[in-house]
């Protein structure tokens, strides 16, 4: 082995672990900013919860890659015939990590996540049972999303994405505030809609690979028109949630107006994906939409706290 190769190999494996854990996709972690703006206390609990959610999500996406590699769907979706997807994002497909290395990494992250969330519960000023049960259910479901029970292979993919995002806002809020809030629930659902919208556009692009392995996403189960109608309904429902919350007093009356910039971007995303047929650019825009939503919801919480 040459000196140059020996020096490069550890760095290559390290990058492989970073890609396996999708550390560059941080959008699920932004929910902690919403909670911090709403409660403005207990920073130690917030930090422990954030570190725990990073570990749990890293474990979940690593197990998802392991299953995708085993069943061949990633070989289809990231193979040489699909030039829109970067093969290196899937280190098992690219050969930069072995399956055994990926499994050790995934379960190590899962154990770390469990300990960190337990520490967050211990340090929290409140421990409402609904928040603890919600965390426990989502922890188990995250590890079974594509591995073990394979929840996403039984028609639960889209629902899980929303519930995961919702939990990452609602559970830490409950642990710190000690109460349930309808307005925070609305924020949590809107936050969960962001990753869901990444997912449904990705599924639209990955429909052939998912159908080949029997993964029943909405895109795989319906026609192109049916899938477009589903995503259009999700986009409209996102707006209606904020509008109804404002109209009924669950949220401040100005809330629906505050989030209009994100609503406009969501409409742009749908037009780009289905009117112009550029699904991958639409998926990329979804990250911007989600981040704008987070910014506006944080602002809403700051305004409420300021009175």
Query: Main β-sheet: number of strands, strand sense, barrel status?
Result: none
Low-confidence stretches: 1-9
Tell me, what's the shape? globular
**Separate helix tally:** 15
Strand-and-helix sequence, N→C? Answer: HHHHHHHHHHHHHHH
- Please report the distance between the alpha carbons of the first and last residues: 66 Å
The overall number of domains is 1
Please indicate the percent range of residues in DSSP E strands (runs of 2 or more).
under 5%
What integer is the average pLDDT?
A: 91
How large is the radius of gyration? 20 Å
Helix fraction by DSSP (H/I, runs of at least 4): over 70%
Structural class: mainly alpha
DSSP strand count: 0
Membrane topology: Multi-pass membrane protein
Main location: membrane
Keywords: Membrane, Transferase, Transmembrane, Transmembrane helix
Subcellular location: Membrane
Would you kindly provide a written description of the structure presented here, covering whatever features stand out?
The protein is mainly alpha-helical and 307 residues long. It has one domain (12-306). The chain is 76% helix and 0% strand. The protein is built from 15 helices and no strands. The longest helix has 29 residues, at 43-71. The chain is globular, with a radius of gyration of 20 Å. 45% of the residues are buried.
């Amino acid at each position: 082995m040459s000196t140059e190769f020996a020096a490069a190999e550890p760095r290559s494996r390290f990058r492989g672990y970073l890609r396996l854990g999708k550390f560059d996709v941080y959008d699920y972690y932004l929910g902690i900013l919403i909670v911090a703006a709403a409660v403005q206390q207990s920073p130690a609990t917030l930090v422990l919860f954030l570190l725990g959610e990073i570990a749990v999500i890293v474990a979940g996406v690593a197990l998802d890659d392991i299953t995708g590699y085993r069943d061949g769907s990633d070989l289809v979706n990231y193979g040489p015939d699909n030039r829109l997807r970067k093969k290196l994002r899937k280190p098992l497909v690219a050969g930069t990590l072995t399956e055994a290395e990926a499994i050790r990494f995934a379960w190590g992250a899962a154990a770390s996540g469990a300990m960190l969330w337990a520490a967050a519960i211990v340090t929290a000023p409140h421990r409402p049972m609904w928040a603890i049960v919600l965390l426990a259910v989502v922890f188990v479901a995250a590890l079974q999303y594509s591995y073990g029970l394979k929840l996403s292979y039984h028609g639960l993919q889209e629902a899980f994405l929303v519930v995961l995002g919702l939990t990452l806002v609602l559970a830490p809020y409950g642990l710190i505030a000690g109460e349930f809030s309808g307005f925070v629930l609305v924020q949590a659902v809107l936050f969960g809609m962001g990753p869901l919208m990444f997912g449904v556009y990705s599924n639209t692009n990955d429909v052939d690979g998912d159908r080949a392995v029997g993964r029943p996403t909405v895109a795989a189960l319906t026609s192109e028109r049916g899938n477009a109608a589903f995503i259009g309904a999700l986009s409209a429902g996102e707006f209606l949630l904020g509008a109804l919350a404002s109209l009924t007093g669950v949220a401040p009356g100005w809330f629906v107006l505050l989030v209009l910039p994100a609503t406009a971007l969501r409409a742009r995303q749908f037009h780009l994906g289905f009117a112009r047929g550029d699904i991958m650019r639409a998926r990329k825009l979804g990250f911007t939409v989600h981040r704008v939503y987070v910014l506006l919801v944080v602002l809403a919480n700051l305004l409420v706290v300021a009175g």
